[in-house]
């Protein structure tokens, strides 16, 4: 796939160029979702450069800022119609004993932009708080974020807390952060995601599935 | 039993002191620092080293889990022993519980001499950010990065004189708007890794067995679990 100019500018972390291109393309009638998608592609490249040791943490944060700026730019357009993805609630939080929230915040921005209603419980969230909030908000998707190894136990215990309140059959649990299939199995979550946009796609698919099940 | 230690270079001062104090002069294979951010690379590197080692009955791994770096490792012929800790911070504070207690007080960023010298740390990150984005933007970015951190803790493990770098750590704390504190550490965990006994603070993996998350995590010992069962 040929990288768009917008994606390339995001990869270079050239914020002025990104905003100029996004604005020009919007004025030329380009679809806002396409602009967001190209920005996201650039962010993926930034992530890869970070993994290769070519970019630093500040660069990752910068790409997240650029992404939020583009979302704001798109959302503030007079003709912008926000997508309505679901009336369902997504519960989100960084699990107990962990305070890392960069990925969480980014994914929440992306979810909200895509029309989801998200309740952000913050960081260091106790399992029982997740469970109670799930009841209160009638959430059907719970996203657990964490970067430390001890987060895996917190995620696992949070899933047990949902089970304890009888919520598990109607709730899908997604874990994110430093996770993989083994972590998913250990925590007994339903899904794991390593990248924000992958998480948004998953939430969309789950909401569609839940709607279909309600109709049936 | 013929034993070798594979150790993270970041722990060099502390491990060398533990070796001197215990007299356990096993050969040590040092793995260079700086791989912590690239956990998959470090994981592959460790597996490669385990496969290269022969004529040894036991490998002591002076590593924490550090983002799953130990996950999936296997030694074909030797037993593996490693501390049951999230990362080397718990190892240098003396226990997992000590780290948890300190972290519960407030969000804490930990530093040792090894981390300052050998690893990609928050200070190097900040200096890069200032160079690339200028001071004002770097400050804004780091406000987000360190959003929930309030303290910079220098761990005094007793393995070296910390006064040599306190001026720098105070400058780091001041610049990043964190309080500065010296927290007593310990090399006892490392000494116990060398000498045994390997009680519940350690994981022992027989030859040929793969390290899984069940070896690394320990929710049965978590007080949190009891809290869950009291939910009505």
What does this structure look like?
- The complex is a heterodimer of chains A (216) and B (232).
- Chain A is of the alpha/beta class and 216 residues long.
- Chain A has nine helices and five strands, in the order H-H-H-H-E-H-E-H-E-H-E-H-E-H.
- Chain A has helices at residues 5-11, 15-27, 32-51, 57-75, 102-113, 127-137, 150-164, 181-187, 196-215, and strands at 89-94, 117-120, 141-146, 172-177, 191-193.
- Chain A has a five-stranded parallel beta sheet with strand order 2-1-3-4-5, sandwiched between helices.
- In chain A, helix 8 (181-187) links the parallel strand 4 and strand 5.
- In chain A, helix 1 (5-11) runs antiparallel to helix 2, helix 1 (5-11) runs parallel beside helix 3 and helix 2 packs parallel to helix 4.
- Chain A is globular and about 55 Å long.
- The mean pLDDT of chain A is 89.
- By secondary structure, chain B is of the alpha/beta class.
- Chain B is 44% helix and 17% strand.
- Chain B has eleven helices and eight strands.
- In chain B, the strands form two sheets. In chain B, strands 2-1-3-4-8 form a five-stranded mixed beta sheet, covered by helices on one side. In chain B, strands 5-6-7 form a three-stranded parallel beta sheet.
- In chain B, helix 1 (12-22) links the parallel strand 1 (3-8) and strand 2 (28-31).
- The longest helix of chain B has 14 residues, at 39-52.
- Residues 220-232 of chain B have low confidence and may be disordered.
- Classes of the chains: A alpha/beta (216), B alpha/beta (232).
